[in-house]
Amino acid sequence: MEPAPAAGTRPSSPVEAPGESIAPENVTVEGVRGWLVPFRALRHRNFRLFFAGQLTSLTGTWMQTVAQSWLVLKLTNSPLMLGVVTFANYLPILLVALFAGVVVDHVDRRRLITIAQALLMMSAFVLAALTWTGVVRVEHVIILAAFNGLVSSFEMPGRQAFVVEMVGIEDLPNAIALNSMMFNGARTLGPAIAGMLIYLVGTATCFFLNGVSYLAVIWSLFAMNVPRKTVQTEGMDMLRRVLEGMTYVWEHKPTFYLLLVVAINSGLGIQYNVLMPVFAQNILHTGSRGYGVLMAAQGIGAVAGAVTLAWRSGTSRGLRQTLTFGLFLTAISIIAFGFSSSMIFSLIAQLFIGAGLINYMATTNTMLQIFVSDQLRGRVMSFYTMSFIGLAPIGALMVGALGEHIGPQATVVICGALSLGCAILLLTRLDVIRTAQEAAEAA
Questions:
Q1: What is the pLDDT of residue 353?
Q2: Of 57-66, 164-173, 326-335, 428-437, which has the strongest mean pLDDT?
Q3: DSSP string of 69-112?
């Protein structure tokens, strides 16, 4: 993931990469028409297995996310501690993501993902046991969050780069859209289920069921028919490989601007989510069930946005339009959510946030993978992971602290204003992105 492009050169078109590294396996349908068009990536057996396994596992992950935030709030009643837990989860990703990208480019990605999923499963079972026995403290939650972040530093870029091995370049944009649909379908189901389970049986059951859900994705990975990737021991100079990735990102300006906007928006703008339990309990007065419904509403909006994205043809102009529209919609909706003290209005705002965010993020992912050659894919996806999460530790702490000092509503409005600034910045860089798209198409 041929040698990496020389510093300062335009990256090879993904179509030019060796077919063996990206060729899809087990294609069961030669052509897709009509209502099946949005689901065309599912004609690949490996991707169908991956889709089903991930949907089950991510539903459990969202159950744990909601239950963990609720547990921390009950243990501490502190918005700041919610930020601290998020900080602990994100910090390891910030520290090791660049080096993880080199590993992703040199190992069998399926094996890497399988090991990571097994470790995350163990972590969920440990948290469930601590909670069930009544000995859990916020320190335990922080330590496990940091461990999960470390494992995710390798799992996330590995999973992103693995998609092209399942479907090939032709169906990559659709596979990314379906991944987004699956991710947010889980975000719809998981919080809703968690809200009810917390009310009926407590948070520990959510943690346990999340652990069980990892078995689905581990099974799907074992069931795939993917050629085993040869481990590259030659040239595994960690620092040099990291510098190759950094040089590409710095010199390929469309990639640089896309990652910069992701870093600012994800690290500061959408961190308003840290205060969601506070909104549910203290402003909307809806308790844990309301918290689950608010999180599910954002997931429903994202699923709707992903379905719309999957229908689109993926033309260069269409991708640019989706990119900017999605970010503007997200920013305006976050500001509206901050001003809201009505559950109905808040739910509507969450729907639009989800729809806008998924269109923006999925399109960014698609553009990055189309621009880069397979030999650098893992490193670029690690930069993407770091951009998406890198500033989040600081952002989570800032949002938590501001929530305590100036109030949650004013803090959320500030988050929305920062997202709006990102949208304006992106709008001013569309010419650079268009030029890169035209160059890739010409190649």
A1: 93
A2: 326-335
A3: HHHHHHHH--HHHHHHHHHHHHHHHHHHHHHHHHHHHHS-HHHH
CA 1 and chain centroid, separation: 21
Q: Which residues of 38-63 are buried (b: 16+ CB within 10 A; e: fewer)?
A: bbbbbbbbbbbbbbbbbbbbbbbbbb
And the tokens for 140?
Answer: 């335990």
Q: Distance between CA atoms of 206 and 192, rounded to whole angstroms? A: 11
Q: What does the mean pLDDT of the chain come to?
A: 80
* Residues 79/273, Cβ–Cβ less than 8 Å: no
CA 117, 111, 182: angle at the middle one, nearest 5? 50
pLDDT for residue 307 is more than 80: no
Q: Give me the mean pLDDT over the 209-218 stretch.
A: 93
Helix axes 430-442, 253-264, angle to 10 degrees: 130
Greatest mean pLDDT among 179-183, 305-309, 355-359: 355-359
Q: What residue ranges define each of the domains in the chain, with the CATH number in brackets?
A: 38-442 (1.20.1250.20)
Which tokens hold the place of 394? 């600081």
Confidence of residue 9 (pLDDT cuts 50, 70, 90): very low
* C-alpha to C-alpha distance for 357 and 375, rounded to whole angstroms: 29
> Which residues fall within 8 angstroms of residue 76, CB to CB, at 6 or more apart?
138
CB crowding 401-438: b at 16 or more within 10 Å, else e: ebbbeebbbebbbbbbebbbbbbeebeebeeebeebbe
pLDDT > 90? residue 332: yes
